[in-house]
Structures are given as C-alpha cells and as structure tokens.
UniProtKB/TrEMBL annotation:
The keyword Glycoprotein applies. GO terms for cellular component: lysosome; membrane. The gene is LOC107395254. Belongs to the CD36 family. The chain crosses the membrane at residues 444-464. It holds the Pfam family CD36. This is Transcript variant X2. It comes from the Eukaryota. GO terms for molecular function: scavenger receptor activity. Residues 472-506 are annotated as: Disordered. It is found in: Membrane. InterPro entries: CD36_fam, LimpII.
Amino acid sequence: MSRRPFAIYTVGALCALLLVCGIGLILGQVFRTLMHNRLKKEIVLVEGSRVFESWKRPPPPVFMEYFFFNVTNVDEILKGAKPIVTQVGPYTYREYRYKDNVTMVENGTMVSAYNTKSFVFLLEKSVGDPTVDNITTVNIPAWAAMNKAKISFFRSSMLNMWMNSLRTGLFTTRTVHELLWGYEDSLLVKISTTNREVEKDFGLMIKKNGSNDGEFVFHTGEQNYLDYGRVKTWKGQRQLTFWSTNESNSIAGSDGSAFHPLLNKDERIYIFTPDLCRTIYMDFEKDVVVKGIPAYRFTPPSSVLASKEENPANEGFCVTSNECLGTGVLKVSPCRKGAPVVASFPHFYLGEDKYIDAIGGMSPQREHHQTFLDLNPTTGIIVRANKRAQVNILVGRVVGFPKTKNLTETIFPVMFLNESVEIDDASAMRVQKLLLITKLVSNFPLFIVGLGGIMLMIFIVLLFRAHKQKTSTEEDSSYSPVSQKDKDDPQNGNCIGLTPKGGTQA
C-alpha cells in the first residue's frame, strides 16, 4: 500500500472517531455531568470545602440603610386628618456578620451556628448624624401598651391615668439613634413596676448590635446538594408556633446566606426570616450580569403578602378572623409580644392602593423598594442582593382611650430598611475563574467535534486530490492510434521496405 492511500485512510478513521466520540459525549453530557458532580462535592458545609470559610465569614461588605418617615401634621391627625409624612434617610451602617459557635452535629450530616451581626455607623454614606437628627413618629410603646390593656377596664383606666400623668402622647419625637438602638421610656418604666416582664427600654433594633437570632441547624448538602444550606431547625424547633396552620408555621429553605448550586429558572426559592417570623419565597424574574458574572434574579411575587382571598394559603397568617389584613401587609404581633406591628415592603410596594392612599408621602417604586436576590446559577453564590422591609404600626380607635376617638384605622409607616450586598472584586475574580474552568470542561466535547470537523475537511481535500491525480495518470497512459500520414512518412521509421524472398531483381 502506498503512503498516500494510507494517509487518507488514517485521516478518515480519525475523523470518524472524533466525530462519533464528540457527538456521543455531547448527547450523553458526560463532561457536563462530571463537572456538576464535582461542584456538588465541593459546595458543602464541611471543614475543608471550597465554601465553608466564606460561609462562616462572608467577605463581601454588607450595608444596612435606615429610612424614617417623619410625621409633619400630628395635631391634624389627632383630629382625624390624613397623616402626612416625609422620608428621611438613609442612615447607613456597615454590617459585619459571621457564623458563631459553628459545630458539626448528627455525625457530621448537619452543622449548627449562630448568625451574629454587629453594626458600625458610616457618616459619609448617611444624610446626617443619628445622634442629632430628630424624627417625629408613632409612639410605639404607648400603642403596644394600649393594645394590651384594652381587654380590661381596670388596666385601661390605670394606663390612661399613667399616660396623662406622664404626658405620654400617641406620637413622640426622638433621635434616630434612640429609635434604632433604644431609649428608656417613662411609660414602660412605670408599667415595669407592676410587671417585671416588661422592659424599660425600647428601640427598633435594640439588643441587635452584636447579638444573634438564635441557634440554626443547617443541612451540609453532602447527602443531597439540593439541601445545601437548608435550615433544619431554629431555636430547636422544626416548626414555628406563631400562626394557625402548619403551612404558615413551616421553616423551609435557607436563612438567606447560602443557596444550592445548579439553580434553574423554574424553581421557587424559600427563605426563612426570623424578623418576619415566617418563611417567604421568591420566583425567577430575569437574567442579569454582575461584575461579569451571569446571574438569575429572584424576587418575591405579590402572592407572598397577598390576602387570604387572593391566596388562600395565607389564611394561616391571620392573627384572628377579625384581624386579617389585605394584600401587601402582614401583622406580626404574635412574635412581637402582642405589639401592633405590621410588616410590608417599603412604601407598601405590591400592596393595596388603600394603604398607599391613606398616608400622604407614599410613592412605591419597583427600583427602590423591591426585594431581590441575584444568584449565579452554577454555584448558587449571591452576587448581589437587596432585602427591603418596612415597619408599620396599626393605629386607630382603641376602646377605653379617649385620645384615639378621632382616629380611623390606619397602617402607619415608621421606617424601612435596605440591607444590601454586592460581591467584592476579589471574590468575583475567583467565581469567574471557576465558571471559566467549568465552561471549558463542560464544553470539551465541542472541541473534539470541532477537531473532527477539521479532520473531515482535510479528509475531503485528500480524497479530492487523490481522485484528481488518478484521473491525470489514466489520461497520460492511454493508447493513441497512428495516422496514415505518419505511416507513409519515410522519416518516421514506422515502415520498413522488405524485398520478397526469392524475388527477381530489377
């Protein structure tokens, strides 16, 4: 066999082998599966894993912004007028968070930890000094006390007397620092003399600087990657006890700090939030890119805080049948010691118009008031997030308290917070490198198919050239007949004159 046919057959065989192998690997998704299995083993909450240290101490900076609603027409409100408020903020704090007392439990299949947070004020990112700026708002301790005392004539009479003697009003003016981190309230001091369970100090964030929300037990994700970071128990409980149905009391999903890898757009993400005393969920909204990292944006749909008429599953969040609010708000008094606290999104975003129209100064906007999570679908890493929530107080006429006689029931906004985080540059580079490796390995069969395609073209060229050369050779070696003229030409030497044997010579 000559060298040329051997080369052609070799190229053809390699071409066929590469194409068959490459297409087979693509159809079988072999390399993709191998890479995904590798990720599932790496992204687990165990010592030595790729993500364990960053889970315990997240590197990206977290910022907490507080916006307050300053009441501008207190006297008119007490006469029955519509409340008018102006938004003041942000007052920004750097939030330092880490997992404390991290311990492997249940033979290493679970991990327990405490989510500890501390806050440091950032003047350069704020509108003013929280120790100086005053805010006029609802007197939350007074409203909480009135709601508890209204069930008893004796208690309401005693509380009325104390409020009058202390000149305690339905609204109060305090500094931002006092409203956030606490102040000694004269009415609470008086009540504490008869009830030791009542604390003298009040603040929206009191005792939350340097503290935690209680013990969490998480799944490590070793047995099932879908369980990575999922909460098993909180404060030793598998279910809450605040609400009236098992579905409403369920503790599901993660605590918002970790999500399983290999996310898809069709799944619903569940997050348990102690601040809301419940589990919320988020659905896919759109694709985004953050610092060159592709991500899926998940946001809470309107059904999360929908009324029981719009979403029957929310009926369990009604405190009583008579205390079931409409769409966009959630009364969380069962986990706030009976205080008439109502949670919502800022400016009643996704809420009914009646709540927005009842307060002058409300202007819900998707861009500024939506809660969202941007997650890289391959790794499950949070690349950007904004958690936004508003604290409101349910105010209105309270039986036994003459000061409230002119008030209509209103969900009164006090303040809203924006907890934001975006992946830092160093972490972003590591994620990009990991995604590049994952992409290259997963797409390796395409390289094989591409190489097979190149070999196919070479094979075709070789076949064409071999065919052309064969045709040329055949043409050169074919027989050509001699013409009669050439035969008669004596110079050609084609004919030799012979004398017949035995012939007579002339």
